[in-house]
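One-letter codes give the sequence; the fold follows as tokens. An example follows:
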Amino acid sequence: MAGEAISLCMIVKDAERQLPQCFDSVADVAGEMIVVDTGSTDSTRQIAAARGAKVIPFDFTRIDFAGARNCGLASASGQWILVLDADEALHPDSVLLVREIAGRGENAGYYFERLNRQAEPRNEIADYVVRLFPNRPDHRYRGRVHETIDASILAGGGRLVRTAIRIDHDFARDPEARRRRNLLYVAILEEEIAADPTDYSRLDFLAAEYHQLGMFDKAAGIAERLAMLRPLDPESHLRAGVYHLLYKVDRSRARADFTEALRLRPGYAEAQSFLQSMDQQERAEGD
């Protein structure tokens, strides 16, 4: 697979310290680098240009991450899009797999495992994000914050596939800065939900923001709402059960949630584990 067929697309701001490591990680993968800058005041733009990237200024006065992402996609000429943030790096063992998957030419978006490294070296959390997909005009991001491309890939007839590709994410931030960001994102998400109440993905992200802020009652309320909006989704019932068990302490509702999740997905390991744990605790309390 020729490297020129893969375009790296990024949005950045004041990333002069992170950019070199990110660029180095994709040196053998990306034949083109598109950097959308949302208002850097350091040497980010100069560093990106010196490394051969096409730098595109983007007015971020009104926060719109999807708009910035899509601006980069519109300028990419590669057959495939690889998306990274400045504080992320493609793991060396994943380079050949990226090239191999892109060489298949399938209409699919590929999930990467993202290892989020926080301030403490042992405090690592993994999640999965779509970061590789064909360069098609109908593949565009949605959402001013927590932007995603999954829905447009599916709408275009594509599949979503989980891979063993890994990216490392240095996620050490000042707690107060994170709190301000969480509050800002809550406000934007609430605006988006008011504009389109049918986009339930915005509710998922709003619950996550409330959880990070420690506002567990609000997060639990959204989890309950999602379980009602998605009555056939076992994961929504599982999440509602977790909030009822751990944060609202309503064991009867938690048991009902886990039981429903298990009914919808027989053998659901997480639901079974919670139910077994509740049974053991109740037996111990009865002795």
Notes: The radius of gyration is 21 Å. The longest helix spans residues 175-195. The CA atoms of residues 277 and 283 lie 10 Å apart.
